[in-house]
Design brief:
By secondary structure, the chain is of the alpha+beta class. It has a single domain, classed as Phenylalanyl-trna Synthetase, Chain B, domain 3 (Phenylalanyl-tRNA Synthetase, Chain B, domain 3, 3-Layer(bba) Sandwich), CATH 3.50.40. It has 5 helices and 10 strands, in the order E-E-H-H-H-H-E-E-E-E-E-E-E-H-E. It has a 4-stranded mixed sheet with strand order 1-4-7-8, with no helix packed on it. The protein has a 4-stranded antiparallel sheet with strand order 3-9-2-10. Strands 5-6 form a two-stranded antiparallel sheet. Strand 5 and strand 6 form a beta hairpin. Helix 1 packs across helix 3. The longest helix has 19 residues.
């Protein structure tokens, strides 16, 4: 079901949840805003590198050959918006929970519509000239970068996900992932995955089909 290639110096926790109801419920978004406010309160006037845990995603990017100052982890992009009080946008109940957890854990988190994914899921480095259309509306260059793919090709990364696998209000089966550096604790990663899945179920409903940590 899930596979990670040896060239990828990272760990991933995959979470499968069935029976989710994706809606405009703003509970996750309110928690995202509250989390952002806590960061501003605790780190106002400090350098972003002083924030506890921010180096995890940076170290993972470096291990994958990505300069985190040029291509920031999604979690750090959220943190920068929080500290600069730039505000956030609500997407839907499931994506909002993912953004809340990504900011809370300071780890890249992705959410996919499971029914839009075909066959085995493989974590690998992108092939030369491999790209996909990102949720930002721009092509995402995946060459030699962390990539999540299926039998049709890549659909996810630690920078931004693809349009092809995007969650929307019709999604009922979700595949979630948390990406961490190779030296990150398996125990802590599993705990984060459980918290993430519990928050999803609390707000979006559903049942956990499985949590898989691959290294």
């Amino acid at each position: 079901m899930f596979k990670i290639e040896p060239s990828v110096k990272a760990k991933v926790a995959f979470i499968e949840i069935e029976g989710v109801v994706v809606s405009r419920d703003d509970t996750g978004f309110k928690n995202l805003l509250s989390c952002a406010e806590n960061y501003r309160t605790n780190y106002l006037g400090q350098n972003i590198s002083d924030v506890a845990g921010v180096t995890f995603a940076r170290d993972m990017f470096r291990s994958l050959g990505i300069d985190p100052t040029k291509h920031r982890p999604a979690s750090e992009s959220l943190l920068r918006r929080a500290l600069k009080d730039k505000g956030f946008f609500s997407v839907n109940s499931l994506v909002d929970v993912a953004n809340w957890c990504s900011l809370d854990f300071l780890l890249p988190i992705c959410v996919y519509d499971r029914d839009k994914i075909n066959g085995r899921v493989t974590v690998r480095l992108g092939l030369k000239n491999e790209v996909y259309q990102g949720l930002t509306g721009r092509p995402v260059n995946l060459s030699d970068r962390y990539t999540v793919s299926d039998e049709l090709g890549p659909f996810g990364s630690a920078i931004t996900d693809s349009v092809r696998s995007a969650v929307d209000l019709t999604t009922t089966r979700a595949l979630l992932d948390i990406i961490v550096p190779f030296d990150y604790s398996d125990v802590l990663l599993t705990e984060r995955a459980k918290i993430f899945s519990q928050r999803v179920i609390l707000i979006c409903g559903g049942t956990i089909k499985g949590i898989t940590v691959i290294t």
